[in-house]
Amino acid sequence: MKTRIISGIIMGVIVACVLALGFLVQPIIITLAVALIAAGAVYELIHNAAGIKSKIAVAGSVVFAFLYVVFSDNSVFIKPYYSLWLSPELVNSLLLIYFLFAVIIILKSHKDFDLGKIVSLFALPLPYAYAFSCLSSVIKHPDGIYYLLLLLNFSSVCDMGAYFVGVTMGKHKLCPNLSPKKTVEGAVGGIVSSIVVTVIISLCFAKSLVIPMLLTIPFCVLGMLGDLFASAIKRSVGLKDYSNLIPGHGGILDRVDSIIMIAPFLYFAIYYLGVL
Q1: In 3D, which of 144, 152, 150 has the Cα closest to residue 76?
Q2: Is pLDDT at 199 greater than 50 in this prediction?
Q3: Choosing a second label site near 272 at 20 to 30 A (CA), which of 61, 108, 142, 176?
């Protein structure tokens, strides 16, 4: 527990410094930081979870995730720096290049790839890279601090609330095959905790209360689905954690599994629906 707390404090300080530099000095710092996290997450997926040992295949998927986050960031902060080549066409070109790269790698080392590894190499990097690109755009919105706090509320506060309520009152298992410790009572407690914090955050930023409160429920559910999905992947390959990068916490994906499920939907709600 001591190691977990110390690691959590260090992570918090690092995140705070990156955000401060991004908002006060150079916004692209946030994009690059998120891109690095995306690259690490894809490495854990491809190398540790999927079991792909080809260094070229792993490196290619990691580089693709990094570049995808950087070049698909369509926020107003990054365009002045890459206005000549930041475009949907470039992102589409990255997809085609990665597709061709994966085909060549599989053809060259076909004996090392079963169907599961082939599907993983093609299918896993893109949705995770997309989720992280959405996260970057959400943070770099003019109201990015507000949205980031909501995002952390939907994921972390809900998770902590679910844990404490589950420990004290939990009786009915939520999904025993994937996460035996999660309970229905804990899930409800987590959502209620997040609703309370949503009210506090919205009041502090002088935002309306009704829509954020209503959206807290589906966003918390999305976070729980992301957590369970990450657990399903780990259990299917016999992993306890995605890696041991963060002492006491596991890997990158062990920390952001719910966040990357919420981020694309939050991005859609902000930029397309305009409901937040």
Answers
A1: 144
A2: yes
A3: 61
Asked if residues 34 and 95 have their Cβ atoms less than 8 Å apart, the reply is: no
SS percent in the chain: helix, strand, coil, step 5: 75, 5, 20
Work out the average pLDDT over 234-254.
84
3-class DSSP state of 181 = strand
Query: What percentage of the chain exceeds 70 in pLDDT?
Result: 93
Q: Over 50: is that where the pLDDT of 117 sits?
A: yes
199-206 long-range contacts, Cβ below 8 Å, gap at least 24? Answer: 201/146, 201/149, 201/150, 201/153, 205/143, 205/146
List phi, psi (to 5°) of 153.
-65, -50
In whole angstroms, what is the distance from residue 97 CA to residue 74 CA? 21
pLDDT at 163 over 70: yes
Q: Which of 94, 176, 219 is nearest to 85 (CA)?
A: 94
Tokens for 121?
Answer: 């190499």
Do residues 173 and 179 make contact, with C-beta atoms less than 8 angstroms apart? no
Here the tokens at position 133 are 């690109």
Which residue, 266, 152, 146, 151, is CA-closest to 205? Answer: 146
Q: Are 102 and 60 in contact (CB under 8 A)?
A: yes
Q: Does 182 score more than 60 pLDDT?
A: yes
- Give the pLDDT confidence of 65-85 residue by residue, as tens digits: 999 998 876 544 444 444 444
Q: Please tell me the distance from the alpha carbon of residue 235 to that of residue 34, in angstroms, as a whole number.
A: 27
